[in-house]
Amino acid sequence: MEELAGRPIKKKVVAVVGGGLVGALNACFFAKRGFDVEVFESREDIRKAKIVKGRSINLALSHRGRQALKRVGMEDKIVSQGIPMHARMIHSPSGKQSPIPYGKKGQYILSVDRANLNKELLTEAETYPNTKLNFDHKLQDWSAETGLMTFVRADGSNDQIKADLIVGCDGAFSAIRKQFLRRSRFNYSQTYIPHGYMELTMPPIDGEFAMKPNYLHIWPRNTFMMIALPNLDKTFTCTLFMPFDEFEKITTGDEVIEFFQKYFSDTIPLIGVDALKRDYFRLPAQAMVSVKCSPYHINDKCVLMGDAAHAVVPFYGQGMNAGFEDCIVFDEILEQLNEDFSAVLPEYTRVRVPDDHAIADLAMYNYIEMRAHVNSKWFLFRKHVDNVLHCIMPKTIIPLYTMVTFTRTRYHEAVKRWHWQDKVINRGLLFSATGAVLGGSYLLIKNPPDINKLIIPAEKMWNRLLALRTS
């Protein structure tokens, strides 16, 4: 306890529900500010578990997430345990590989292991003397008026605590959020996409990575795709994203091989025929959900963060980064408003909701880009134009991916700027093309050529332009 004029002052108690990535990081932020922090996790301690349950899609750590880790002194340690990915590596059906850089030279995202990151954050949270981690504690009930919380332990006994602030970081199917749903004027939506995902492992070959490690490998096939991220143990985690009805069509090992031979033939010798047949049927395809809600708070007593507030599909690599940025934004508002929860919580909702909704929409859009647009010559041409303009006018034209991944530009502002830039660049390309046509027409009028020699080349050029725009 602190003292004021000789009288002890009780520290405020912050109860963080959920000991996952955002919950563990939040514990560090609140403990650093001097609050008494209690973390409650329904599962056992992941650091002691023999089998780690839950999702395992590899994580892509980028600028927003790194900034959050930096605030609690964890950035260098986590970055040293990640693998830099400087570009997407596109695998065509023929096996041809083509890199598409993420940004300027030196810019990269990091492939990090979810379970290891969670363990590191829990261990860091535990180093604060004012933090207590409570595992095997399932939330049974809580009061938004009093802050009284009741948990059920693994042995069936109850545990109660009274908190000044309750922070819901308990994931897409949040138990804390259920209380919000009972209240008036709480907006909530969830959307399951028709695609599921399945994970496969590509083992090392002769102790080395089976493919180039410093890339996020993508096999885009228009209506579905596969990606592969490198791991520290020299394996790749391959994730197949496909409509559920397509997964269900494949019922035998031979059909698996036939499917991979048709669409991902270059991966068969790398994953292995037997491993493919075994792993494909090991677990059913998993669902992906996008959650939006508002407001994020109830009075001065409770606030939602991470997937509990805004679960997103994994296609922009921003789910964890957005959740980690929640921690920074809340901490910044705590600082601005002198830790007055009655002012901080509504301000957090006002600031954060439009950004989280924007990244949820962008993640949906990026799935189309990853599985279809990267095959388009027009997309690659526009990507090149954007990058050239960014080099010439770095403060005026900034590619959307750069704003989202390599800056802390607010998500909704990045989307607005992207739409404006898109309009300007498309008009510029149109004016340039019009100018070229008018200039060419003027030269043709001044110096008329033999018309018969022009017909065939002109037709060829027109067909090429059409192919570029529609491919």
What is the CA-atom radius of gyration, in angstroms?
Answer: 26 Å
What is the CATH C level class of the largest domain, in words?
A: Alpha Beta
| CATH topology heading of the largest domain | FAD/NAD(P)-binding domain
- Strand residue percentage: 15-25%
- Give me the count of strands: 21
The total domain count is 2
The CATH superfamily of the largest domain appears as FAD/NAD(P)-binding domain
User: Based on helices, strands and strand pairing, what is the structural class?
Assistant: alpha+beta
List the total number of helices.
16
Protein topology:
Elements: E1 2-4, E2 7-9, E3 13-17, H1 21-32, E4 36-40, E5 59-61, H2 63-71, H3 75-80, E6 83-85, E7 87-91, E8 97-101, E9 109-112, H4 114-126, E10 131-134, E11 137-142, E12 148-153, E13 158-162, E14 165-168, H5 175-181, E15 187-202, E16 215-220, E17 225-230, E18 236-243, H6 244-249, H7 253-263, H8 268-271, H9 273-280, E19 286-294, E20 297-298, E21 302-304, H10 307-310, H11 319-336, H12 341-371, H13 377-392, H14 400-406, H15 411-446, H16 451-470
Parallel strand pairs: 3-4, 3-14, 4-10, 7-16, 14-21
Antiparallel strand pairs: 1-2, 5-9, 6-9, 7-8, 11-12, 12-13, 15-18, 15-19, 16-17, 17-18, 20-21
Helix pairs in contact: 1-4, 1-11, 2-11, 7-9, 11-12, 12-15
